[in-house]
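I am still getting used to backbone structure tokens and would like to learn alongside you. Please make up or recall a protein chain and show it to me in full. Would you write everything just below, so we can both look at the same thing?
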Amino acid sequence: MQAWQVRENGEPSEVMRLAEVERPTPADGQVLLRVRAANINFPDVLMCRGQYQVRPPLPFTPGVEICGETEDGRRVIANPALPHGGFAEYALADAAALLPAPDALDDAEAAALHIGYQTGWFGLHRRARLEAGETLLVHAAAGGVGSAAVQLGKAAGATVIGVVGGADKVAVARDLGCDVVIDRRAEDVVAAVKEATGGRGADVVYDPVGGDAYTQSAKTVAFEGRIVVVGFASGTIPSPALNHALVKNYAILGLHWGLYNTKNPKLVQHCHEQLTELATRGAIRPLVSERVPLEQAADAVQRVGDGRTTGRVAVVPSHRNGATA
């Protein structure tokens, strides 16, 4: 089979190499999945660079989120078991963690439903307890993680303010359903949020960016507001001033979604059921901006790392021994 391999750490476009390799053999409790679509996530970029908290042994195949097909023909969503990741024709996954792919979504959309939407659901509902009528501020609202939070916020009945970088992403965020869109390259984010909220600020801030975005979050969060720290796509990990949180009376909430897989896996299943129901009635639908063939995966991963994409980019293997759906 064909698979992208990383034999040394560095930029994805430089260290990912497409190779002909043997199909991986499942260990006890694992299954072999035919990859129908693999979604590109920022952790794939960080793993190539050797900067992620999980460091698979070299060589490894990146790709942490797929829609795959079991030997008996079931369409499932899975997090591949590294080092045999999803940017390949076949991948391994833990049998107990497979989730059914919603019929309402195609392969690429189903692949994109998992990590970003689970993170959004846990962040907004489990950690921040977002309520209908509240105001939600989403940083990087046109990106893969942010776009999921926007849709989930609207589905929950919140007023959603999206922050993006660039006029092209403004249009994307509006189409996603943002009530207010702020272009951080052309506007003062803090002033714009205060204007949009009548000076009150946002009840919940969803921050997958860190750096300057977190500074803006602290300045715009409302009384008894909640800042959900999801990641640091900016590359800068902020050091919050806890006296500021005390004086303004807001909460800083960390979210590491992967922990739920070991600490409370039943909640992951419950979340998937909620997401499937939302997808079935059309309340959410992953924004897949591109579907690229396996041969173009390295370039696509690099573009995600450089912040040059919107929504999700999916890698779709052609499977030389059969067509993909």
The radius of gyration is 19 Å. Residues 321-325 have pLDDT under 50 and may be disordered.
